[in-house]
Amino acid sequence: xxxxxxxxxxxxxxxxxxxxxxxxxxxxxxxxxxxxxxxxxxxxxxxxxxxxxxxxxxxxxxxxxxxxxxxxxxxxxxxxxxxxxxxxxxxxxxxxxxxxxxxxxxxxxxxxxxxxxxxxxxxxxxxxxxxxxxxxxxxxxxxxxxxxxxxxxxxxxxxxxxxxxxxxxxxxxxxxxxxxxxxxxxxxxxxxxxxxxxxxxxxxxxxxxxxxxxxxxxxxxxxxxxxxxxxxxxxxxxxxxxxxxxxxxxxxxxxxxxxxxxxx
Length: 264
Hints:
Elements: E1 16-21, E2 26-35, E3 42-46, E4 55-57, E5 63-65, E6 71-72, E7 76-77, E8 107-116, E9 121-125, E10 134-135, E11 140-141, E12 151-152, E13 154-159, E14 166-171, E15 177-178, E16 180-191, H1 196-203, E17 210-213, H2 221-231, E18 240-241, H3 248-259
Parallel strand pairs: 1-17
Antiparallel strand pairs: 1-2, 2-16, 2-18, 3-16, 4-5, 6-15, 7-14, 8-13, 8-16, 9-12, 9-14, 10-11
Helix pairs in contact: 1-3
């Protein structure tokens, strides 16, 4: 059996991609029809887009000043999320290279962000300026400014159409760090399977699929609106509920009903 992903960790044509949303215990299921950028999946973006003179808070209290473009000062972190402006002209957004409108509902970006030095703390906001990392059933918000609740040097995500994502970075070392970002990405043409039974088999892992969990612990209104405008999901069905394997009949009936409302 062919692998679901290739050596870059990107989904192969004809295979399935499952996006899990913890806040609602539901998933989006897609078949990758084609990978538009096959053979050129790497963008050597350059430094994190942060400008000299920017003031950042410090882990030690007080503040730190960015000494040069793309340099993250020692013991500093970002409060708000940033976006990555496109290095080329003609994109939908001048501030977010990964943004796509809801009319491009059959396109998804599978993004792997690598930042150097790899010790840099990383955090993803969905949508921009909304912190999603939580601890103890949402009692505590964590992230790059907390003792935990972040990764280092890497973020993997799928960019949903109509939603702008934000990225936060932190440097808890005692050195100013010159940064560099590389993206490995797949631009997928996708479709939602039209069989409730097939979706059930994917979500119960009888059929292989590449799973990505989005860090969404809170269903912001922007996320709900994006799922409605882009695919036709409506409250409370923001995706396909995960059922037990012994609930197949209930699940297939539920999925089949949802599929009648979708537009992809």
